């Protein structure tokens, strides 16, 4: 009799694989295409070049997701992790592209950053001991809270929309939220696991007759789109561009570490130093591929971590299927245009429940931490405050150097670094706070699920910047 496989390795039936996979694609699609839209817009690219950037991005998103979920040799964490462009790189890339270097200088710096991530992965693998439940719970909470304004902006119609804040937009978002909750509560198990997908489909069905969206863009899109290496010219390697992209690499590695720990806890397959290094190596390889195939640096996506927590579907083959769908969308721009026609309020209604799940997960992890007679409350309080600063006041660091803005404008990396530093100060350095409290008696299950949601990190920054910039 063969042993039963771990839930992460189980392969659901084909029909379920497709439905679950499509749900993951819809959850991350808006964030995935935001980076090429913002960077291409800042560089004043033609509509044809912009469309090319988006299809190239979707193609490499899919390949990166397959590397991470399926894995080969020492590349890939082999957990249900969705990969997408990181938002931490947007400001530096716009700066590199507009100050004379153009796209070739961006791609040169992206290739070097990807190689650096591959080399640094084993070093980060040894940092796991700095992520006890006190730190991971705080980071997951910050990720969830910083994602919520993104869902709010979507629900209101999307930043820059002429009808932003119209009651009809919020009514549509509320309707989608009600459908998601109703399906989760009353539908059979399989349907409740695709509640987000059902909510988006029903929301779209209502949105079309009421004039929220049209499919004009689908007719204009090409049937076939093939991304060729170095489409915009051979990469150039400029020192200043490379240095700023290396800072981005460190930020995304910090975020991805939180994401991987989170998903590992959530799925019951804890991340070890070796598997963390394998996951980061996959990030680096995907980033190198991004530089070669005319796209950008890659990281784990947060709202998909929220989706794993919400649906409790733990199979990595589900997310690998989502990667396959993204490859198709990258090769068939017409399909991509259909997905792009989904109106923002529909995504907003689904986003509220997914991102709220991330924040609630962080609270559950923290519920297992000991807060008596120690300084753990201070660690959480200050870390959440520092993490939320750039979310609540996006221009707070506008007068600081670019490298500082890259690190601190991501609420996730700001909160994460603060939590690690304060945990070491109060719980590890000799003195008043014994280190025992730090990993405070969090039950495995709680920590697991909580950490799992830490995955939101990369994505959240992504989505938030997307809303401000798009």
Task: Explain what you see.
A two-stranded antiparallel ribbon has the order 1-2. Helices cover 69% and strands 1% of the residues. The termini are far apart. The protein has helices at residues 14-42, 47-70, 90-125, 133-155, 167-186, 189-193, 195-207, 216-220, 239-267, 273-292, 302-311, 316-331, 333-340, 344-367, 376-392, 402-408, 411-427, 444-452, 456-469, and strands at 83-85, 298-300. The chain contains 19 helices and two strands. Helix 1 (14-42) crosses helix 2 (47-70). The protein has 470 residues and is an all-alpha fold.
Summarize the structure.
The protein is an all-alpha fold.
Low-confidence stretches: 432-470
Mean pLDDT: 81
Strand order of the largest sheet: 1-2
Please tally the β strands and state the result: 2
* Sheet with most strands: 2 strands, antiparallel
Q: State the helix count.
A: 19
Q: What structural class do you assign from the helix and strand content?
A: mainly alpha
């Amino acid at each position: 009799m063969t042993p039963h496989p771990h839930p992460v390795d189980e392969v659901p039936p084909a029909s379920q694989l497709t439905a679950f996979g499509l749900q993951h694609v819809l959850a991350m699609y808006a964030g995935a295409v935001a980076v090429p839209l913002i960077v291409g817009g800042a560089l004043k690219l033609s509509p044809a070049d912009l469309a090319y950037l988006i299809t190239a991005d979707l193609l490499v998103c899919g390949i990166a997701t397959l590397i991470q979920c399926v894995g080969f040799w020492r590349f890939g964490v082999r957990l249900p992790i969705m990969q997408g462009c990181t938002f931490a790189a947007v400001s530096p890339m716009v700066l590199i592209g507009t100050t004379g270097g153009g796209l070739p200088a961006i791609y040169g710096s992206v290739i070097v950053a990807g190689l650096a991530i591959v080399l640094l992965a084993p070093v980060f693998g040894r940092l796991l001991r700095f992520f006890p439940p006190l730190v991971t719970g705080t980071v997951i909470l910050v990720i969830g809270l910083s994602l919520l304004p993104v869902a709010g902006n979507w629900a209101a119609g999307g930043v820059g929309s002429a009808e932003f804040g119209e009651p009809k937009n919020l009514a549509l978002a509320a309707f989608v939220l009600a459908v998601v909750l109703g399906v989760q509560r009353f539908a059979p198990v399989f349907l409740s696991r695709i509640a987000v997908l059902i909510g988006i489909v029903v929301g779209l069905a209502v949105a079309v007759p009421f004039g929220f969206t049209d499919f004009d863009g689908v007719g204009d899109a090409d049937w076939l789109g093939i991304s060729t290496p170095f489409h915009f010219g051979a990469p150039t390697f400029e020192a200043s561009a490379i240095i700023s992209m290396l800072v981005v690499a460190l930020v995304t590695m910090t975020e991805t570490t939180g994401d991987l720990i989170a998903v590992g806890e959530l799925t019951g397959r804890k991340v070890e130093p070796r598997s963390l290094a394998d996951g980061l190596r996959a990030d680096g390889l995907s980033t190198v591929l991004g530089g070669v195939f005319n796209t950008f640096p890659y990281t784990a996506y947060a709202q998909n971590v929220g989706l794993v927590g919400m649906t409790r579907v733990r199979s990595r083959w589900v997310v690998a299927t989502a990667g396959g769908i993204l490859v198709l969308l990258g090769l068939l721009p017409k399909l991509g245009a259909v997905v792009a026609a989904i109106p923002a309020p529909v995504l907003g209604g689904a986003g509220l429940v997914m991102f709220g799940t991330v924040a609630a997960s962080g609270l559950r992890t923290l519920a297992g931490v000991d807060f008596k007679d120690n300084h753990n409350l201070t660690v959480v309080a200050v870390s959440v405050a520092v993490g939320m600063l750039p979310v609540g006041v996006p221009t707070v660091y506008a007068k600081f150097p670019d490298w500082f803005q890259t690190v601190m404008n991501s609420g996730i990396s700001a909160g994460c670094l603060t939590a690690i530093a304060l945990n070491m100060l109060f719980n590890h350095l000799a003195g008043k706070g014994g280190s025992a409290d730090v990993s405070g008696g969090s039950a495995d299950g709680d920590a697991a699920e909580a950490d799992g949601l830490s995955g939101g990190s990369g994505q959240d920054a992504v989505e938030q910047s997307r809303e401000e910039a798009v």
